[in-house]
Amino acid sequence: MSHENLTAPLPDDIRRIEDKKLIVRRIESVFEILVFCLFYYLIWNRFYRYSPDFINPLLGRGKWVLLLIYAILTLIIVHMNEGWRFGHFKILDVMINQWVALFMVDFITYLELSLMSAVMLDPLPMLLLWGLELPVATASTIIFSVYYRHRIVPYNMLLIYGNENAVSLKFKMDTRQEKYHVAKLVSADAPMSELAELMKKYNAVIISDIPADKRNEILKYNYAHGIRTYLTPKVSDIIESGAKSINLFDTPLMLVRGLGLSIGNRIAKRTFDIVVSLICLILFSPLMLAICIAIKLEDHGPVIYKQERVTLNGRKFDILKFRSMIVDAEKDNSSIPATDEDPRITKVGKIIRACRIDELPQLINILKGDMSVVGPRPERTEHVEKYTNEIPEWPLRNKVRGGLTGYAQIYGKYNTAPLDKLRLDLMYIENYSFLLDIKIILMTVRILFEKESTEGFDKQITIEEIKAEVERAEAENRAEGIIVRRRHPRRARKGKRN
User: Fold this and answer.
1) Are 131 and 225 contained in the same domain?
2) Helix (H) or strand (E) holding 148
3) Residue 333's domain spans which residues?
4) Is residue 257 part of a domain?
5) Same domain, 185 and 73
6) Secondary structure of the chain: what % helix, strand, coil (to 5)?
7) Does residue 359 lie in a domain region?
8) Are 312 and 431 part of one and the same domain?
9) Which single residue of 6, 223, 243, 261 could bond 265 by disulfide (Cβ 3.0 to 4.6 Å)?
10) Cβ of 288: how many Cβ atoms within 10 Å?
């Protein structure tokens, strides 16, 4: 696949490309919904329609209502679980998202049919339905993903960076070359006239951590000229995203309350936490007992490991985990991050860490009110102090209870940089809704199958790699006559309107 065409398409061409992407996604979603509804009708007609348990056998138009409800459920839940985002996620991720979503659709449908019959029906036909849907979901995801990647070529991108750390974004994008192709890097300190000429040559522009005045200048220029633009949001941008729009006569205002969740959301979220933690503790009690016995038999040490963490409003608490390392793995309570082949991890620990079930005791933390099912992951006290010194906005993530899973766990990695974690957690807080919690819980199932979600700190991008990439880009730019005039911090423009 060639990426050498540096002629930027016109806005109408970009619109056609985007329309084509949308049409491909819509074709797949409609195809799958029709096939799944057909399978559902066959299963219902064969096993449930004439069941003596049904009060009303639904011999007339009722069957069409059932099919319509099933189609709507499939559309909502698969979409909410991002099961049609091929081209954005890896193929396996999209498949797992669909599998989980379809299981939820069939489970809800099973409950619906059981309510109609006034008894719990035989669940095996619904499991058979799910088994029929899985090959279709898998095959269609592979076919449409391959078509998408071969027919829709990634845009050539220009990355405008403000500091060397911002260049790390290129390394992340390089892992998804079927979607992103960062063809050139240039410093934001280059004159705007030269940046404008450069941006016209590329299909898309990425703005990464550059000063606010220069960022706004570039963004307004690109908006006026129809240039596709990606930008890494600043913390203030994310806070503003949750603001309420107000019109004072002819003046638009944005209201940022900064109070966290409303009282209604807090009550609903806490009720949900209690119900979910109680149900899960009951369901997983046999598994938890087996893990306790296995840990005790291996080295006779304590079963539960406690560690001080920080949650809502900076309150400290002891988070609970099944012990997966040797006793006294962290002497003097010093933080020693685990790597993939850490010798301190026990045999039982390797299993429970790989399955992520070492976190199950945190259901007790949720029931007690220390944590929530969904929220920013609680950090160790020493990490909070360190990150707060580096990032003054870090405590903002403690406007809600820490969670068993969260936005940063779904879209990030174990070694995601603290600033990126903060951005993700603030996006969750500012855009909170009950449906968002459900979506995150559904998508958490996907990360259980991903090795990269448990990668240790040994996989981080090194400073040397970043510096080498910057030096290479600057040498290339000098050869092309792009002169970067570094601005002295004291001479930086101040007070320019955004």
Assistant:
1) no
2) helix 124-151
3) 263-459
4) no
5) no
6) 60, 10, 30
7) yes
8) yes
9) 261
10) 19
